[in-house]
Amino acid sequence: MNKEDEILHLYLKEINSICKEYRESKLSSKGFFDKITVQDFPIRGHHAHLHIIRRR
Predict the structure, then answer these.
(1) Environment class of residue 16 by beta-carbon count within 10 Å: exposed (0-12), middle (13-18) or buried (19+)?
(2) DSSP assignment of 1-56, as one string?
(3) CB-hemisphere CA count at 13 Å for 23?
(4) pLDDT above 60: residue 36
(5) Is 25 exposed, middle or buried (0-12, 13-18, 19+ CB in 10 A)?
(6) Organism's domain of life (predicted)?
């Protein structure tokens, strides 16, 4: 989390791990989508930007 000029930057990255129910199955990772930035509602009077990286 960075704070610059009263803007909160929150970085969220989905973990590339397999659930224990599917560990024995043959799975392949498709990688991640490009990072997106979402401007969210103010948190305690500060603008909030969410930087999100998620799996395909």
Answers:
(1) exposed
(2) -EEETTEEEEEEE------GGGTTS------BPPPEEEEEEEETTEEEEEEEE-B-
(3) 4
(4) yes
(5) exposed
(6) Bacteria
Distance of alpha carbon 44 from alpha carbon 39, whole angstroms: 15
Number of structural domains (the chain) is 1
* 52 or 4, higher pLDDT: 52
- What is the domain extent for residue 3? 1-15+43-56
pTM value?
A: 0.64
User: What's the residue count for the chain?
Assistant: 56
